[in-house]
Amino acid sequence: MILPILKFPNKYLRAPTEPVSFPLSPEIKKLAKDMIGTVRNADGIGLAAPQVGKSVKVIVINLEKSGVPLMALYNPKIVSKGLKRVEIEEGCLSIPDVFGMVKRPKKVTIEAQNEEGKTIRFSDDGWIARVAQHEIDHINGALIIDHIKKYTQGADIVKEWKEEKVI
């Protein structure tokens, strides 16, 4: 099922999230499956549960077009960050028409659980690292508008939100 993607300033985008427990409940399995369908349908590269109104620690990374198998990660966290930081333009399915330059560590090590509950740990210094950091931000209540220093599109939208004290 394709889920509606919440748009900023929806409160779920800032709400605290809860870890998922194992074995996964049928509801969490369905959520992950629906998130995969939703991110593909939106032509996105990542999606976090808060973006579809669920306050749990589930993310999906969709880099299939780059030859990376789609992955659902449960209870993901960044356990280490490299010193080199890279600034790249980012956007977000929950903040349409807003893009800007975001500086993040190039390399991160991520720890998460797979669908079976097995703890997995991996390091990446490419797109997986970038998308994972963005989606992990979501499950921690952070958004790209918290990180953007220079807007490439949508600065007027953000200015309006600030004037309305939404941000």
Overview of the structural elements:
The chain has a five-stranded antiparallel beta sheet with strand order 1-2-3-6-7. Strands 4-5-8 form a three-stranded antiparallel beta sheet. A hairpin with an 8-residue loop joins β4 and β5. The mean pLDDT is 96. The chain starts with 25 loop residues before the first helix and ends with a helix. The protein has a single domain, classed as Peptide deformylase (Peptide Deformylase), CATH 3.90.45.10. It is 23% helix and 28% strand. The protein is an alpha+beta fold. The protein has three helices and eight strands, in the order αβββββββαβα.
Quick summary:
The protein has 167 residues and is α+β, with helices and mostly antiparallel strands.
Overall number of strands: 8
Overall residue-averaged pLDDT value: 96
**Which outline best applies?**
globular
* Arrangement of strands in the largest sheet: 1-2-3-6-7
Total individual domains: 1
Which spans of ≥5 residues are poorly predicted at pLDDT below 50? Answer: none
Q: What structural category do the secondary elements indicate?
A: alpha+beta
Architecture blueprint of SSEs:
Layout: H1 26-41, E1 46-48, E2 58-61, E3 71-81, E4 85-90, E5 99-105, E6 108-113, E7 119-124, H2 127-139, E8 150-153, H3 155-163
Features:
167 residues, alpha+beta, Peptide Deformylase, 8 strands
